[in-house]
Structure formats: C-alpha cells, structure tokens
Please model this.
Amino acid sequence: PFDVLVVGGGPAGASAAIYAARKGIRTGIAAERFGGQILDTASIENFISVKHTEGPKLAASLEEHVKEYNIDVMNLQRAKRLEKKDLIEIELENGAVLKSKTVILSTGARWRDVGVPGEAEFRNKGVAYCPHCDGPLFEGKHVAVIGGGNSGVEAAIDLAGIVKHVTVLEFMPELKADSVLQDRLYSLPNVTVLKNVQTKEITGTDSVNGISYIERDTEIEQHIELSGVFVQIGLVPNTDWLGDSVERNRFGEIVIDNRGATNVPGVFAAGDCTTNPYKQIIISMGSGATASLGAFDYLVRN
Ligand code: FAD
Model:
C-alpha cells in the first residue's frame, strides 16, 4: 500500500505529492488530468516570484518537479469511490482499487458556465472567471459581471477599483448577496446593477466587444458595448464522487481543519475542493503542503 495517495493532479495535488515524497515515504498520485485548471489558463501574473507565466507552462513545470521524486504518477485516472477500512481504499473508474494509509483529496473545482453563445469562443479573450487573476487586464475598461450572489458582488466591488465601469447582471429580481456587500456595491459611482435580466450572448470579433441581455419583464433585448465579462455564478467542487464518505459543506466543499484533516482519520484534503477560502494557485499549493505535512504527522503518530 501507499503511505500517501494523492487524488488530483493540480497545483494542490502536485505540492502534496512532492512534500510527501521528500519524507521518503511511499507516495502515489492519481489524476484525471495532470495539471488541473491551470491547463485552461492563459496568462498567470500572481504566482509570486514568477512575474509572468502561462498555464500549460506552469503545468509542465509541476510535472517536471513531481518527476524529480520517486512518486507513482497515475495520469488519466478518475477516482470514483473512497472507503475507509483498515487502509483507505480508492476505487478508480477502470476498476482498480488503490490502498493507502493516508489519502489527500485535491480534486479541485470548476467554474459554472452561463452557457450562452460567445462564452466558450471568447474564453481568455475577454471572458474571465477570476477577478483576482484577470481584473488588472481590464484596467480603464468597461466590464460586466454575470451573477449577483456574494461572489458576483465581491467581484464587482473588486473590479470597480481597477476598471472604468462595471455592469452587474442578475437574473433574479433581487441581488442574492449579503446586504453589507450590496450596500458597498451601491455606494460605488462606477457600477450599474441590472436585475431581472437574462444574458443572451457575449459578442465580439477577435475578443469580447459587448453583451446582449433580455429584460425579463418587458422581453426587450438590450446590448452594451464593453471589453470583458466575468462569469460569477458559482464554483463547483469536484467532490460528488465522495458521496457521504467524507464530510462536505452545502457547497460540496470538503470540510478541513487547519492541518488539512477531514472528519475521516487518515483522509486529508487540499486546494479548491475544500473549505479553504480563496481559490488561487499559490493558496492551493500551500494547502497541498499543509495537508501533506498533516498526513505525515498522522503517519508518525499511528
Ligand atoms: P485543480 O487545478 O482544479 O486540479 C484538480 C485535479 O484533480 C485535476 O488534476 C483534475 O483532473 C483532478 N480530478 C478531478 N476530479 C477527479 C477524480 N474524481 N479523480 C481523479 N482526479 C480528479 N489562479 C491564480 O492564482 N492565478 C490565475 O491567474 C488563475 N487564473 C485562472 C484562470 C482560469 C481560466 C481558471 C479556471 C482558474 C484560474 N485560477 C488562477 C485558479 C487556479 O487555477 C486554481 O485555484 C487552482 O488550479 C486550484 O488547484 P487545485 O489543485 O486545488 O485544483
């Protein structure tokens, strides 16, 4: 059996595997797609100490770093079940069952798409999901935020400090965000809030040049010229496969303590699939290191 088996090969999983292997213990990593979300990322400018890189390049460096160590890498393997027996068992989609003394879950998350024409076409060409990552690219420009929940309103407040103007589009007649956030939003001079509107299309040529929406009460279609659209209708953790085997919160995030431990002894978790706040590369890597040291500590004591 493994001492540490990591499930998920994004920044969190790679970091967890390297920290474990450096302890000289038997380490494996199973990932559906080694690299994770960064494979879909164009430019990265907030991975501290690296002024600028690109997602696929960072993914290749992660893989290179992992290969420096004696780590059993199982790429293109999707986990479908976790069961705690004497050891912890992870069953893969191909039927194989991996056994380990500890497991680190780092299966990440995915942004929920609005699913309108133009969204996929202009992804990374004006369509963005992360204000911390891509906000500065729109300095001095007009952008829209789709979604008036907490994440949408937080994004709009954040962006309003960088860009020229922000238009928030909310499908429902009222914003769902906490009232303190709404108060802050409405106090800003360069924000327009459109409620009860349905996004119809993100328009553009080489990159985004506007957004079309329908006023739901009048059914009138409107178009706004702008340069960027931030989609903020939810981040979905890739944790459904766990069922009730590990405690998750109402958003599906795996509940962890400050050492990365879950409610199941020997099962740790890290990165975007957890309750750890703020979903970022540098944070998920730190979280992977924490969970790995947590798992090592557990092995020493058990
Ligand atoms: P992920 O990167 O999501 O990796 C999850 C891993 O688990 C993958 O290998 C996946 O294939 C695997 N997996 C999932 N389910 C299973 C399963 N059942 N079995 C086995 N493996 C599974 N952050 C920044 O800091 N700066 C940026 O500029 C930035 N830009 C971004 C741009 C885009 C378009 C996106 C989508 C995200 C961006 N982020 C950015 C966020 C950043 O990519 C994430 O915070 C980070 O990748 C999270 O790492 P993770 O390892 O927790 O999860």
Summary: Helices lie at 11-21, 55-67, 131-134, 150-160, 179-186, 281-301. The chain is about 25% helix and 30% strand. The CA atoms of residues 176 and 184 lie 14 Å apart.
